[in-house]
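G., the chain you wanted modeled:
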Amino acid sequence: MNISNDSAAMNYVEYFTKQLPVDLANMAALRDELAVRQGALSAAQDALADREAAAAQLKAAQDEAAAILADAKADAAAAKTKAAELKAREKALDEQTAAFSASSTEREAILASREKSADARDIQQEQTQANLAALAAKLAADQSALDARVKAFQDKVAALSA
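Predicted structure as tokens:
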């Protein structure tokens, strides 16, 4: 705006006919260039946002992988502990089985010895019973013979005294 009026007045007809189409063309070119630059800036901002999102997803995936790895290590350690515990229990069970087998064999040998001894005692008792029965029969026969002799002697004494 010209306040001091030191320049020539503007000729609007000449401006509209000659300068305005040139200005409009320049402005359209600037608008197109601005749109291209704005698109490039938007694309760069989108790419930056995509990078940040990818970085966040990568960090989340790494954290998840670390958690899974930690769980897997804990599970592996627990499995090793359980395997060691089971080996120890299996060894103890094998030792108990071996000890039981040894003691069972020993008890069976002792039992067989006792049965053999009991059988020998039974046989000896049967022989003793048979000997006692024979001796009892002999004693009974000797007693009868003695009684018969005493009776005969008493009869003789009675016959002599009478």
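The chain has a mean pLDDT of 90.

Shout if anything looks off.
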